[in-house]
Design brief:
- This protein has 7 helices and 2 strands, in the order H-E-E-H-H-H-H-H-H.
- The protein has one domain.
- With 198 residues, it is mainly alpha-helical.
- The longest helix is centred in the middle third of the chain and has 38 residues.
Amino acid sequence: MALFLAIGMSLCHTGAMAQEAHGADVIPLHAIVVGSDTIPVITLAIVEVVEQMPKALRKERERWSRLRNAVYVTYPYARSAARVLKDVNSRLATMSKREQKAYLASKEKELKAQFGDKLENLSVYQGRVLMKLINRETGQNCYEIIKELKGGFNARVWQTVAFFFGGNLKSEYDKQEDKDIEVIVQELETYQQFRAYN
């Protein structure tokens, strides 16, 4: 029995090797021999054929993609804002009023040089997402931050500007209401931790 099996395997192996490849344009393939024919065997990937995505699903996918893009673009700015605010608050605590004013003016100039062009290029939608993320990172809404650092009048002026563009500096981050943003932030943080170790 083992002898027949060994002879059969050697015949199959020799039959598969009967046609040798010649030339540079040859792609080696697995093949089976049926009678005197060598038939190439190619395994194709499984493809699922479905009908076009329903309109409601397309809309949801577009909404999700837009939100995900906005979070990916603005989250680094929110993280930077939290670091800068923590640093500024700790330094202001040790300064006199005059020193605080000079320090804030120099810090504002520095931040405008570093982030001004980038933040000006954000869309209104991305700006709204950024305000929520800043509240998430700092625990304060943008109105409170401006009021604390620049005064109540400036805060009201910027709130009016934001209102005309459909925004609200007083918008708060709510983990339940903004659960989609939270999912994307968690994804981003996981991805950044993964990259830090690679």
